[in-house]
Amino acid sequence: MKQRSKKNFLLLGLFFLYIVFFVVYISKNLLKYSESITAAFLILITFFAVLLLGYRKDKTSILKKSLFNLVLSAVIFFFVVIYLYGLFFGFLKTPYNLSFFGILNNIISPLVILVCSELFRYILISSNKDKKHICISTTIILIFLEMTFNLNIFHFDSLSSWFKIISACVLPLTAKNALLSYLSFYAGYKPGIVYRLIMDMYIYVLPIVPDLGDYIECIAMIVLPFFIYLKSSEMVEYYENTFEREFKVSKSLGSEIATLIPVILLAVLTSGFFPWKLLGVGSESMEPKINKGDAVFAVKTNVNELQIGDIIVFEQQDKEIIHRISDIIEEDGSLYFITKGDNNNSEDDWRVSPEDIHAKVYGHIPWIAYPSIYIKELVEEK
Questions:
Q1: Annotated active-site positions, please?
Q2: pLDDT band at 251 (very low <50, low <70, confident <90, very high)
Q3: Within this chain, do residues 174 and 32 fall inside the same structural domain, yes or no?
Q4: Pair 258, 265: CB distance under 8 Å
């Protein structure tokens, strides 16, 4: 066996042994410190990879610039889409501490793991472009590494559990890592690091994340890498079949971002952290004024200014409901609102407290939310 091959298998072997050690010991006994231990291991093995295989400088080329632009554009567009999706299906608050030191403490280990993983991938792939088995082995090892962090949230006691593991974990991680290895082969480590910085780290720094649900999230995390792969493979094929001077760097990134800015602002301003809110209507209770599939424009309001006849957004039974105020009563010094759907025969059988009221409806956009309502109902049926 050649000396370089021995070094490759030594590195992959050490990586595999660590994963076994993680599964057998760390995940059971040191789960609290698992990310820190993994970060330390990756720093060490990346150092050994550079020492044994050397580091090939990631030289800039027209193709690499275009692939970098493609990845960045696709990820930005993806985030706009999922946050718009969240406007109609809801958001979840991040469980992480968002103070400066909280963010710093939360992201250090994941950031080290992310960067070292991609550098390790790049070093092995760039050193073995003529050895497909090394590239494939590296990808598989990195898939297993990410899977180990999800072991504690899954159960292995039934066929449905295994199906959930495969659909929610194995397939998305396989799609992502296959794309990252492809990008590392043709474009170096930078597109992969940018992809993961945005896709893997946003949950640590943003106050809200879209409530996609397991089914939609699984589909999205497979479709996005597949889309980027299809577009990047077209670029690579075109680049390899033309003269470099005829291959132009994509100039569309700036215009794409400029086009998306209004949509991004819409997603941010209607996220619920600002007075404005856009909600999809999922029932027929307010017809004919507001139909199922319409989107209502609501604004946070002072409850003392509300009057009978106003349409409000309030929370009841863990759901946001859009009904009209039919009466306002005061009892024992407390204010209560009686509500009714225009299409309902009787008033609602609950009293709405001021703290349950989220906003007042000022208008609606016909049918704009119908596709998302249809998808939601389809997913809930499944």
A1: 283
A2: very low
A3: yes
A4: no
